[in-house]
Amino acid sequence: MKKYRTAFFTGAVMLALLCTGCGGSTEPTVQQAENADVSEAETAAGDELEESFYITEITDEIFARIDGKSFKEDCTLPREDLRYLHVLHKDLDGETHEGEMIVNKHIADDVMDILKTLYESDYPIEKIRLVDEYDADDEKSMSDNNSSSFNFRFISHTTRISKHGLGLAVDINTLYNPYTKVVDGERIVEPANGEPYLDRTADFPYKIDENDLCYKLFTEHGFEWGGSWEDRKDYQHFEIPTDKVAEWYPDNQ
Fold first, then answer.
1. Domain residues of the chain, as ranges?
2. Cα dihedral 78, 242, 237, 70 in deg (nearest 10)
3. What is the pLDDT of residues 49-82, one digit of tens each?
4. Could you say which DSSP state residue 137 is in?
5. How many Å is the Cα radius of gyration of the chain?
6. Which letter, b or e, does each residue of 120-141 get, where b requires 16 or more Cβ atoms within 10 Å of its Cβ?
7. Is there a contact between 178 and 191 (Cβ–Cβ < 8 Å)?
8. Rounded to an integer, what distance in angstroms lies between the CA atom of residue 174 and that of residue 138?
9. Of 56, 241, 231, which is closest to residue 163 (Cα–Cα)?
10. Is the pLDDT of residue 107 over 90?
11. pTM, to two decimals
12. Phi-psi label, residue 206: left if phi above 0, alpha if psi -120 to 50, beta otherwise
């Protein structure tokens, strides 16, 4: 994923407009020049944000990238129910990068609003790449601290599609916010290299908790946080509640 660089433009046109019709000197004042520079820079930055944050349907080009990977051969979710999101995000060093995510059409606007607010708030997200760049292997994606959503699969031993399989769940900064559960006395941690971050009292980068902006935005938009679950913890995970999913996909219950 290439790094996104912001371009700024000169304020010559704005200065000329400010000076038009002046009764005295046509030379702009220092304050006028400063105001023009700020105004034009803000306009340019705003235009670039609009161009960089957008939602599209799954085009043939995009589908070719996910077919047989996240969109598996047995995928029963219609392609038309998915949306592609192009966003910007900042890493821990404040560097801006382009990001891609595929989500369900029902949450596309909400997720876009969340990611845009996180970007504008300088919230660090290390990577936002399609899980297909990891051959749709969740462990590989999570261990690389990648944030993603859609990856088709059924819930084990059922014919129900998982919420990630529906594109109705989003994982953020996955390495530092692992999934964990005790099964038959053995602790499971996913990704495996996320085990050092199970101590949620410790201070480390990219950590999500209830004081975190990411948590606040997702929950304000109606998502549940996996870090609140009692029988397991999924600190990276935000999903649409089951009753809402049932409204959209009644045959998946």
1. 51-252
2. -20
3. 779 999 999 999 999 999 999 999 999 999 999 9
4. -
5. 22
6. eeebbbbbbbbbbbbebebeeb
7. yes
8. 10
9. 241
10. yes
11. 0.82
12. left
